[in-house]
Design a protein that fits this description.
Elements: H1 6-9, H2 19-27, E1 35-36, H3 48-57, H4 69-79, E2 88-91, H5 94-105, E3 111-114, H6 121-128, E4 132-135, H7 146-152, E5 157-163, H8 175-184, E6 190-194, H9 209-214, E7 219-224, E8 237-240, H10 243-250, H11 260-271, H12 273-295, E9 300-303, E10 309-314, H13 318-327, E11 330-331, E12 333-334, E13 344-347, H14 351-366
Parallel strand pairs: 1-11, 3-4, 3-5, 5-6, 6-7
Antiparallel strand pairs: 2-8, 7-8, 9-10, 10-13, 12-13
Helix pairs in contact: 3-11, 4-11, 5-6, 12-14
The structure holds pyridoxal-5'-phosphate.
Length: 367
């Protein structure tokens, strides 16, 4: 008897292969000329501090890894806000942490609320556990609809996923909306505040989830090392929450589940404040330039973003535009799998990459 449905195995995350090699094979492109702007990664090269840490960790691979206690300490110091190491739990990437959260709170038949369009992994992890996924979709302008969310809550609701800045829209949940939700949600609902793009937000009205962690609310925040810290390949993410929730989540983890290379590299990445600042400053310089450049192209609707990507809707068929861009060596994300058919998501790259994207999109839109 198979436990997983074929549709789950068909999900893009299980389709192997490196997207750059696939394009090289398909169109005979030079791998160095390919710009990968489809996964909201950090486009800067891996910093030397991290490369050195990885090389050092590689000398002791005969030993079991250290615990992630030091990384939790360092994250508490990096974020501040009166947080301590016990507010943190490290996992193999944000996706694994999302899976652990769902496994820790969902029994078959429980309900979980998601606000489409959003990150598809919530639904994937929930359905595997037999949860009923309830939709309280965003408004047409891609803001959250607090009344719709509250109306979707029942006695069976366990989890409510709130993503800010949201993927793939780049829009935010405001403080006022979050405060309203927290004051009116019943005690049996845990908010999963997915904030993996938080460092790129410049809107002061964005929800302040850490304040609610400090107040011991029913909230657990998700952060990732795949975005700002530039370690998508190493798989490090973490949950940040009240100690009672974090210590409960930790019961679901296996001993030695994090490898020593990831832990050592994670420590180096948090310590490398120059790399952090360079990434933020590059993203915040390039994002408005990319947004303005996209807005200047005829036949493209642009949704301004608080993350390291921008959502666009071409008048032309989005899958055809994606393919035409691939032929020019540009990888972007077509969003059928993110509840947004007809749209594309483009990551903010380095200046020359964004310019290449704008040139190609201008050409494709005019053709
Ligand atoms: C909203 C959101 N949450 C979580 C993740 C998971 O990140 P990772 O598993 O790479 O840490 C992503 C990755 O793109 C994301 O966009």
């Amino acid at each position: 008897m198979l436990k997983f449905r074929q549709s789950q195995l068909d999900s893009p995350i299980y389709k192997g292969g490196n997207p750059i090699s696939l394009l090289v094979e398909k169109y005979g492109l030079d791998p160095d000329a390919i710009n990968k702007l489809g996964s909201n990664e950090n486009p800067l090269p891996t910093p030397e501090s991290v490369q050195k840490a990885v090389a050092e960790a590689a000398l002791d691979l005969n030993r079991y890894p250290p615990t992630s206690a030091d990384l939790c300490e360092q994250l508490a110091a990096y974020i501040g806000r009166n947080l301590v190491a016990d507010n943190f739990m490290i996992g193999n990437g944000g996706c694994e942490v999302l899976d652990l959260i769902a496994k820790s709170f969902i029994e078959p038949g429980d309900e979980a609320i998601i606000c489409r369009p959003t990150f598809p992994i919530y639904e994937l992890t929930l359905r595997r556990l037999g949860a009923n996924v309830v939709y309280a979709d965003m408004n047409d302008d891609l803001t959250y609809n607090v009344e719709r969310i509250l109306a979707a809550v029942t006695d069976k609701t366990r989890l409510l996923y709130m993503t800010t800045p949201n993927n793939p829209t780049g829009t935010i949940l405001t403080k006022a909306e979050q405060d309203e939700l927290i004051s009116r949600l019943p005690k049996h609902v845990l908010i999963v505040a997915d904030e993996v793009y938080w460092q790129f937000n410049t809107d002061e009205s964005m929800a302040d989830s850490i304040r609610h962690v400090n107040e011991d609310a029913n909230i657990v925040i998700l952060h990732s090392f795949s975005k700002l810290f530039g370690l998508a390949g190493l798989r490090i993410g973490y949950a940040l929450g009240p100690e009672r929730i974090i210590s409960y989540l930790k019961r679901g983890q296996l001993p030695f589940h994090m490898n020593s290379v990831a832990i050592t590299a994670g420590l180096a990445a948090v310590a490398d404040r120059d790399h952090i600042e360079e990434t933020i400053s590059m993203t915040l310089t390039e994002r408005p330039k990319l947004t303005a450049g996209l807005q200047a192209i005829d036949g493209i609707e642009v949704i301004p973003s608080q993350a390291n990507f921008v959502l666009i809707k071409p008048e032309k068929d989005s899958k055809e535009v994606e393919e035409a861009l691939q032929k020019e060596g540009l990888i972007v994300r077509e969003l059928s799998g993110f509840y947004m058919p007809g749209y594309l998501r483009v990551s903010v790259g380095q200046s020359h990459q964004n310019e290449a994207l704008l040139d190609a999109l201008t050409k494709i839109s005019a053709s």
